[in-house]
Amino acid sequence: MSMKFNRTLIIAEAGVNHNGSFDLAVQMIDVAARAGADYVKFQTAIPEEVISCYAPKAEYQKETTGSAESQLEMCRRIHLPLSDYARLEKICKEKGIGFMSTPFDLPSVDCLAQLDMDYWKIPSGEITNLPYLRKIAAPGRKIILSTGMSQLDEVATAVEILCTGGVTRDDIALLHCTTQYPTPYDAVSLRAMEALRSLNVGAVGYSDHTLGIEVPVAAVAMGAQIIEKHFTLDTTMEGPDHRASLDPEALSKMVAAIRHIEDALGSAVKDVADAERGNILIARKSIVARRAIAAGELFTEQNLTVKRPADGLSPMLWDSVIGKCAPHDFLPDQPIEL
């Protein structure tokens, strides 16, 4: 595969919205496949390898899951064991949807390396994790890197680490992202994708955490080649990410809207579309007689006008018609001939 896509690559981010239930994870694969997403993506982690016992919850996590338990305790509760991911990959193949998962620690990288993933996804939080970036880069795989919470120089540094580590620049995709759940509209800054394009990587896209589907659809209109969006079986479920995720119906609507926008983008050439060509005769106009005109009478602005349809002389010839003699009698609304 190449980072040059014929259409937008849509990643339905299941993340940890399965709440640690394998059965719910399987249901999510089914939802993503039915919605028409290209990939369903999970998050693979050994919580003790990722989070210290002192790590606080993010404010959005406190709002959605309370502050009684620690971040580590929460993540222990909602993560699947490493042994489940091979089973999930197999089910994805059966359902006809691509499998991806984001590793959050080095043992999880080793676990996923045994699976057949087209792309490796690096989350925003690992963009400054040098040992992790080196380990991900070593096999020279295609990589999608989210860039939330980072400045352009930090992104550029991470890209150079990946390239030095074994990945070709064309095999790196960068996703603009704002790491807040949900992201306020005034914090999105879709134009930042232009800054990412200046790094000359293989593709640029957008990972969305806003409510609704408008922003990812707009990102496609602005040239995003990859869209990643969280989804859930039910936005009212207990867990940190459900409220900022799409329900199954909204996920399907987003995929459909993106495909419509792809069709609508079309070509950079301004030309008559085949779909509208038949309406030229109906919508454009011709020079016609405003009133009855006798043979030999001069054409003037008083006895001529412009009306539909466009089956006579174009109004663009107006100046060359004015002052000419009528070659014969004309009835009102009759197209003018010279």
CA-atom Rg in angstroms: 29 Å
Spell the H/E element sequence: EHEHHHHEHEHEHEHEHEHHHEEH
Number of helices: 14
Tell me the distance between the termini.
Answer: 62 Å
Your description of this structure?
The protein is 35% helix and 15% strand. It has 2 domains: 257 residues, TIM Barrel (Alpha-Beta Barrel); 48 residues, Antifreeze-like/N-acetylneuraminic acid synthase C-terminal domain (Type Iii Antifreeze Protein Isoform Hplc 12, Alpha-Beta Complex). The strands form 2 sheets. Strands 3-2-1-8-7-6-5-4 form an 8-stranded parallel β-sheet. The radius of gyration is 29 Å and the shape is elongated. The protein starts with 8 loop residues before the first strand and ends in a 17-residue tail after the last helix. It is an alpha/beta fold. The model has no long low-confidence stretch (mean pLDDT 96). The longest helix is centred in the C-terminal third of the chain and has 18 residues. The chain is built from 14 helices and 10 strands.
